[in-house]
Amino acid sequence: MDNKLIAEMLDEIADMLSLEEKPTTRFEIRAYKKASLNIATMQEPIEEVYQNGGAKALMEIPGIGKGIAGNIEEFIKTGKMKKYSDLKKKYPVNMKELTSIQGIGAKKAILLYRNLKVKDIKTLKDALKLHKVKELPGFGEKSEESIEKGLAMYEAEKGRMLLGEALPEAESIIKKLTASGLVENAIVAGSSRRMRETVGDLDILAISKTPDKAMEFFAGMDNVSDVILKGPTKTTVRLKIGLNCDFRVLEPKSFGAGVQYFTGSRDHNIQVRTIAVKNGYKLNEYGLFDNNGNIITSEREESIYEELGMQWMPPEMREARGEVKLSLEHRIPRLVELGDIKGDLHSHTKETDGSNSLEEMVGAAIESGFEYLAVTNHTKSLKIARGMDDKQFIKFFEKIDRINEKVSGKITVLKGAEVDILKNGELDLSNKTLKEMDCAVCAVHSFFNMNEEEMTARVIKAMESGLVNVLAHPTGRLIKERQGYRINIEKIADAAERNNVALEINSWPDRLDLNDTNILLASKFNVMFSIDTDSHSTSNFRFIRYGVGTARRGWLKKESVVNAMGVKDLLKKFGK
Ligand code: DGT
Ligand code: CA
Ligand code: CA
What we know:
The structure is a single chain. The protein is an alpha/beta fold. It folds into five domains: 1-77, Orthogonal Bundle (DNA polymerase, domain 1); 92-158, 5' to 3' exonuclease, C-terminal subdomain (DNA polymerase, domain 1), CATH 1.10.150.20; 161-249, 2-Layer Sandwich (Beta Polymerase, domain 2), CATH 3.30.460; 254-328, DNA polymerase, thumb domain (Beta Polymerase, domain 3), CATH 3.30.210; 338-573, TIM Barrel (Alpha-Beta Barrel). The protein has 24 helices and 17 strands. The strands form four sheets. A seven-stranded parallel sheet has the order 11-12-13-14-15-16-17. Helix 21 links the parallel strand 15 and strand 16. It binds 2'-deoxyguanosine-5'-triphosphate and calcium ion (CA) (2 copies). 2'-deoxyguanosine-5'-triphosphate is lined by residues 190-191, 196, 199-201, 203, 261-262, 264-266, 269-270.
């Protein structure tokens, strides 16, 4: 029984609860969603947590209260979860499959089931083929088209896993391999090394004096559910978390060439190989060779690029987006690094929808090495998150003053809010309260269906208030779950530059919003970015690496990142 399975069941419960149409379940839905993500991204096996500390220990996992802990306990003990099976009887639909298609939410899924007996992807395809979907009330031609598009995207993304789930697994495997003493230099290559937001399979490389023993050990790890292919230097397994993993043992002398080759991306490799050919060379996973087959270099990844007259570039850039040309011109920038991040401008406490107290969040931020933390709770219009009104913020700010006295010298806690951008572009707090803040983050949380022009104008109006400093998760997308709203990123970036607003790169594994391509697009303007964790619990601060990875995929330098500034410069920049 692994974390992934339980996480998926909880997620499905959330989806099925959302069909109940009782407003009282909305909080419950969020709780299940949150618990699901926290379980999916945690390192320890949940069964072990339970065996060691019972339901009480489960409740220490952020997002898990008594009810959910009870469900998990029941499942670990009996292999059944009544809450799940009761709902499943009522809604015998593969909710996870259907709702993972953009254009289909829980409500549409159930309408499709009730009217067309659509239960899963297969039956959905049948219904689409017969053009029955557009005839349903509330669907129509456009909706059918968007579901068809969503289906195509689903097929392309099928089986891919969030980097935030895949990378910790890769690291746990590398740790075990290294601890076995059978391998050296173990490294994850492929899309995980490039920090791509989703991962198709893991590619682990290492050197070993005893490849056969290393293969044996790898195939026998408890992470593995099936061995798909086992050879003398390559083994492919299915991992219990639901992902394939290739493990290759390389010769020490061709390690660099192998790392370069298996890091990819494929399109990047093709471009690099073309350059090799132009120089009269041959490049493959064993090395760089001249036309007579003599080896030029192979041991180090850097020297492969250097011998081709190229500058080495970070893996995050290797997507055939112009980095090869830049590297030939020796103009690869020094990208922002994890260690450059000095603070976090977006976080929540249990006063709204966070799981931890202000004290706990500040403690965790100190432990993460941050010099400052903006606490940015939701505002009153966001009722599901128990958003606060002006009065509550003013009171909360007194709390921040008090905690700042206590933690002085260790961290600076900044007063903020994640102020809701209302439908008309106005902000959900008074100007007076906003002016009290050190860092006001603004975001869209409602009316996602506006057209591009309206949505863009709405957000620009909020930025033009002169009262906000960061635009959070600018497109609102959730990876594999929902497409962002329609918004013109270039116009947003232009307005952000003019109004001194930083665009957020939200580090949540399923957000990463802005994403790499939008960052590149926005970077045409002289706009600043803010890489935030949007932490809702003390364990979320570790998400920052995914935000930084995404920023690097968007070629960002630290000079473009507001929270790479010290607190004094930051406040000056914000005009405080
Ligand atoms: P993924 O697994 O879909 O998330 O993406 P990658 O990039 O990890 O792709 P994967 O696992 O198929 O292969 C790992 C790397 O190996 C890939 O980025 C580049 C290299 N590679 C694999 N197949 C080919 C190929 O046919 N041609 C070239 N040039 N490189 C390849
Ligand atoms: Ca891969
Ligand atoms: Ca692979």
